[in-house]
Write a structure and sequence with these properties.
The chain has 435 residues and is of the alpha+beta class. It is 37% helix and 25% strand. The longest helix is centred in the C-terminal third of the chain and has 28 residues. The structure holds flavin-adenine dinucleotide (FAD).
Length: 435
């Protein structure tokens, strides 16, 4: 994509002496787009923008491979981008857990297993769980090959403004200890839940009713593991859930998440509560008896898409957690980060090409983002609220425990977005009462 006009306008700004808030005389590097954060959202956006011809700088404060606290389950949406980038074989060859279904338990300890439909006659699993240290590096290395430049160990510390337009990023480069400035027509905030970009443009708040806190640890040797994602609704951790997700070689990702408002109201400390669940809950004490905890229990925040942020403005867009897009029922955010990245790149490339990255031009992003994700996020928000009713969880899982037809029905609902809407309907629960 031609960036002569960009260079010319940057030079003009230098000549006028207003170049960067610090008035640095050094010429800043200029790009079509700067992507702040190289997680799944940032790497996806950067790769698609570069593939559309844009000159892209992708930077991250971490050095890859790096860990990210997560459940590590890759959703269908994430796998769609993996496929688009031709990375399926790499994921398949990386250490991973195979996922062929979901197991739920109710507060009154009924268990149901819902197998997922397999797409290719049985060779490949229905889904994968891949440690983020691995999956994010696959995405990042792919993006690195597409973009003009990547800098790892580069902390974006502030935005550079020209009036009310974002025109660049200030960076502390931990590789050489220097402060740098980079300019671009478009800045993408893909810097996760603590997004500097979101904070600086005034949308970085985390309302406690739309924010989840979760802890995670890796274990080895849990008894009774299957190729199923395990989601347990437990009396001692409601509303919320405890999970066990299988990984490679008998390892597992184990975690516990609850909404921040409820954590505060119930004065809960998640890490000690998870320790108690693992050691004392009758469903798990025996299974964890000989298991070894491989990593400390670490907490992180999930910004729920029950309140999507305004994700665009004059010269910038936000993707993934920076835009608050995590599914408020399942806690999945990887796929919505890649989905939002793909949409942002399409709108962004068009805006760069037209030399118009104004708030008006970029507003199309919010419309497309919401057209793609809002109905699904709203359904999940309703399910999250229903899931706060202990009796309802006991009813649904208890009935499904007895009835293969109801398990079949739930299986269809988990795999088809259209069918999931039925879970919102009071009729569904009435039907269950009399099933
Ligand atoms: C405990 C837990 C369990 C979860 N389980 C799942 C799950 O099983 N499946 C699922 O789909 N989702 C899950 N999620 C959600 C998922 O982890 C996130 O939604 C996803 O990582 C969002 O991707 P992202 O690219 O927007 O942000 P991130 O993955 O957070 O990436 C942001 C990147 O920005 C970088 N960065 C941050 N600030 C700066 C800065 N100032 N300058 C430069 N770089 C910066 C960071 O180093 C990071 O690499 C879980 C989350 C948690 C906390």
């Amino acid at each position: 994509m031609p960036d002569d006009s960009m260079q010319a306008s940057a030079n003009a700004v230098v000549a006028a002496g207003t170049y960067g808030a610090m008035g640095s005389a050094n010429a800043a590097e200029t790009y079509d787009a700067i992507v702040v954060g190289a997680g799944p959202g940032g790497s996806t956006t950067a790769a698609y923008l570069a593939r559309a011809g844009a000159k892209v700088l992708l930077l991250d404060r971490a050095k890859f491979p790096r860990d990210k606290v997560c459940g590590d389950a890759l959703s269908g949406k994430a796998m769609a981008v993996v496929k688009d980038f031709g990375l399926e074989a790499q994921i398949e060859q990386s250490p991973h857990g195979r996922i062929n279904g979901c197991l739920f338990s109710s507060p009154d300890k009924k268990i149901i297993e819902i197998p997922f439909a397999r797409k290719d006659g049985g060779g490949r699993p229905a889904g994968y769980s891949v440690r983020r240290e691995v999956s994010d590096n696959v995405f990042f290395q792919y993006a690195k090959k597409q973009v003009a430049r990547t800098i790892e160990g580069a902390i974006a510390t502030d935005l550079i403004m020209d009036g009310d337009k974002v025109i660049g990023v200030k960076v502390r480069d931990t590789n050489d200890g220097t402060e740098k400035e980079f300019h671009a027509k478009l800045i993408i905030g893909a810097d996760g839940v603590t997004s500097m970009v979101a904070r600086k443009v005034g949308v970085g708040d985390l309302p406690p009713e739309h924010t989840c806190i979760a802890v995670r640890a890796y274990f080895d040797g849990i008894a009774g593991m299957k190729d199923f994602l395990e989601i347990h609704f437990l009396d001692e951790a409601l509303p919320g859930y405890f999970w066990i997700f299988p990984l490679e070689n008998g390892k597992a990702n184990v975690g516990l998440g609850m909404i921040q408002k409820d954590i505060t109201a119930q004065k809960i400390q998640l890490a000690p509560l998870m320790e108690r669940i693992v050691r004392q809950n009758p469903l798990f004490a025996e299974r964890f008896k000989n298991a070894k905890q491989l990593t400390p229990t670490i907490g992180w925040t999930l910004p729920f898409g029950s309140k999507i942020r305004k994700a665009y403005g004059n010269g910038y867009m936000l993707v993934g957690d920076a835009a608050s897009l995590v599914d408020p029922f399942s806690g999945e955010g990887f796929g919505n980060a890649t989905t939002s990245g793909k949409i942002a790149a399409r709108i962004g490339a068009k805006a760069i090409m037209a030399n118009d990255t104004s708030e008006h031009a970029l507003s199309e992003y919010q419309r497309e983002l919401e057209a793609e994700l809002k109905a699904e996020l709203d359904t999940s928000y309703t399910m999250q609220k229903l899931g706060k009713q202990k009796w309802l969880l006991n009813l649904v899982i208890g009935k499904a425990h007895k009835s293969p037809e109801i398990r079949e029905l739930i299986s269809g609902m988990l795999s088809k977005e259209e069918a999931k809407k039925e879970l919102k309907s009071p009729l569904f629960y009435l039907k269950l009462l009399f099933a």
